[in-house]
Specification:
Elements lengths: L6 E3 L3 H11 L5 H19 L5 E7 L4 E7 L4 E7 L3 H8 L6 E2 L1 E6 L6 E7 L8 E5 L2 E2 L3 H12 L4 E9 L1 H10 L5 E6 L2 E2 L5 E2 L5 H6 L3
Parallel strand pairs: 1-11, 4-5, 4-6, 4-8, 8-10, 9-10, 10-11
Antiparallel strand pairs: 2-3, 6-7, 12-13
The protein binds 1-O-pyrophosphono-5-O-phosphono-alpha-D-ribofuranose and uracil.
């Protein structure tokens, strides 16, 4: 797909390797969950490059030195339930102090429209960098609704992280909210008539949690 400003695609062989195993229908739920976390961690390393830092003084065994640490509460992650939960540990393994908000959305299987059923966000979220987590960006409807909700709550710095994105979904989010950076590990070919990503990996929530 065309290069869009604010869209980062992680074209890296290690990520491609892990995504290939993730797609495989014979991959177990346990391995699927582990891979979703690992891919997220690899993305975080790059996506968190500009988080807010503060100067701190650290006493080493030899001397007092000025160092840098990430500012408390500077990052909030918001998984879109359910499948976004599969990315939370991947962020926490590198950045354990990130607070977590939850937005529950399900996609109507007929209309593909998202419906909100839950929202709990930490106080002060409006002043932090908010990373919206959802492994699948298909039509983009869920991500757009979640961004709209976060904006209503006053969030100013919102970024999206997805493992697989369809060109249609990336374009839809970018057109509606061009200021929102999108990080996606892999861009797939297209959506099928049922709104599933091709080649994709199937239903991410079902594969993470063993439903269906
Ligand atoms: C899936 C996926 C995304 C959404 C993407 O969730 O996890 O949230 O679909 O589709 P979209 O870009 O077309 O909105 P689903 O609604 O199936 O819920 P689940 O995570 O509970 O399975
Ligand atoms: N949601 C998924 O889990 N998979 C898709 O391919 C599309 C939406």
């Amino acid at each position: 797909m065309e290069q869009l400003e604010n869209v980062t695609i992680f074209d890296h062989p290690i990520i491609r390797h892990k995504v290939a195993i993730l797609r495989d229908q014979n991959t177990s739920m346990k391995v699927f969950r582990e891979l979703a976390e690992e891919i997220t961690t690899l993305m975080v390393y790059e996506a968190f490059r500009d988080v807010k830092i503060k100067k701190v003084m650290v006493q080493t065994p030899l001397e007092l030195t000025e160092q840098e640490m990430v500012v408390d509460h500077s990052v909030t992650i918001v998984p879109i339930l359910r499948a976004g939960l599969g990315m939370v540990n991947g962020v926490h393994s590198l950045f354990p102090t990130a607070r977590v908000g939850h937005i529950g959305l399900y996609r109507d299987e007929e209309t593909l429209e998202p419906h909100e059923y839950y929202c709990k966000l930490p106080d002060g979220i409006e002043d932090s960098v908010v990373f919206l987590l959802d492994p699948m960006l298909a039509t983009g409807g869920s991500a757009i609704d979640a961004i709209t909700l976060l904006k209503k709550r006053g969030c100013k710095d919102i970024r999206c992280m997805h493992i697989i994105g369809a060109p249609e979904g990336i374009k839809a989010v970018h057109e509606k909210y061009p200021e929102v950076p999108i990080y996606v590990s892999t861009v797939d070919r297209e959506l099928n008539a049922n709104g599933y990503i091709l080649p994709g990996l199937g239903d991410a929530g079902d594969r993470l949690f063993g439903t269906k």
